[in-house]
Design brief:
Elements lengths: L3 E6 L3 H11 L5 E7 L2 H11 L3 E4 L8 H11 L4 E6 L4 H10 L3 E4 L4 H12 L4 E2 L1 H18 L11 H11 L4 H8 L3 H15 L4 H10 L7
Helix pairs in contact: 2-3, 3-4, 7-9, 7-10, 8-9
Length: 219
Amino acid sequence: MSPIRILLVDDHAVVRAGLRMLLDADPELTIVGEAQDGAEGLRLTRELQPDVVLMDVSMPDMNGITATRLIKAQRPDVSVLALTMHEDDQYFFEMLAAGASGYVPKRAAPNDLVLAIHAVYRGGVFLFPSVARALVNDYLQRAEHTGDVGRSFDALTEREREVLTLIAQGRTNQEIAKRLVISVKTVNRHRENIMAKLNLHSRVELVHYAIEKGLIELG
């Protein structure tokens, strides 16, 4: 299996050097480039075609939120993982809205970062516990006003529950199909049924629900 190709985007050279030292120690990861602002990160994403972009939020000229939005518009197959000193709800929700698949504070343990990279590369979502709680709280507050808290897990079949849990864990459709010994087409059909029954519209909302029901652990 080829190493996961990573692009570092951070305006601090010392931070990029530290990340390179950490990630170079993992044979399953390879750093293909570095950028010092969002505009350069956008350009290098087009040129280098990384699998995962580690994106800082606050940078001069073009910040990480704008860069993430443009990267996902141009290269939706690229996963963006926010790695930032900010744990404010505002930055967190703006990065998710821009298309980021994960949010990890720079104070996180090195192992958490490596796990996050692997999770978003597989198509999953990785949220550090502190920001995951913010996401769940926001979901519950909104659900109280819309009446969605009562959405019943009982509405799902046993197989749909299995698929829901695996999707929330970050498994790809191919991995789910192999594990459950079903076709990828069947996985897609189960996913559509789950979304319809629970009134969910995105993977992030699906993760909301899975955390609320205790199907996956925070972080």
